[in-house]
From TrEMBL:
GO terms for biological process: actin filament depolymerization. Signal peptide: none annotated. It comes from the Eukaryota. Keywords: Actin-binding. Gene3D superfamilies: Severin. One of its GO terms (molecular function) is actin binding. This is ADF-H domain-containing protein. SMART domains: ADF. One of its GO terms (cellular component) is actin cytoskeleton.
Length: 132
């Protein structure tokens, strides 16, 4: 599976400049390539990120999660989400599952990985518990 240069470029912008809140990646099956589907502005909310993931199709996503530690320090962690809803096509789930590790290696700087099949598996409570 090829990875479009734009994927790495956008991820670097998110990581280094914090110029995006999230990025949703899609596998173009015909081209056998991972592409950027949507980029979220820094002001966009978690709800807007969650809404950007289709209910019945697989995606990869990266989310820049801000939180406050018990010591009252402002921190952020970059989450990688493998979104694979139960209602997605079996073939699609297999392609995303088999390409995930290779794609993730292209994005240097991911701190937490989540596998989600429905929105509750990647709720803010999950982000909060995994970030600490």
């Amino acid at each position: 599976m090829a990875v479009h240069d734009d994927c790495k470029l956008r991820f670097l912008e998110l990581k280094a400049k914090r110029s995006h809140r999230f990025i949703v990646f899609k596998i173009e099956e015909k081209q056998k390539e991972v592409i950027v589907e949507k980029v979220g502005e820094p002001t966009e909310s978690y709800e807007e990120f969650s809404a950007a993931l289709p209910a019945d199709e697989c995606r990869y996503a990266v989310y820049d999660f801000d939180f406050v530690t018990e010591e009252n320090c402002q921190k952020s962690k970059i989450f990688f989400i493998a979104w694979s809803p139960d209602t997605a096509r079996v073939r699609s789930k297999m392609i995303y599952a088999s390409s995930k590790d290779r794609f993730k290696r292209e994005l240097d700087g991911i701190q937490v990985e989540l596998q989600a099949t429905d929105p509750t598996e990647m709720g803010l409570d999950v982000f909060n518990s995994r970030a600490r």
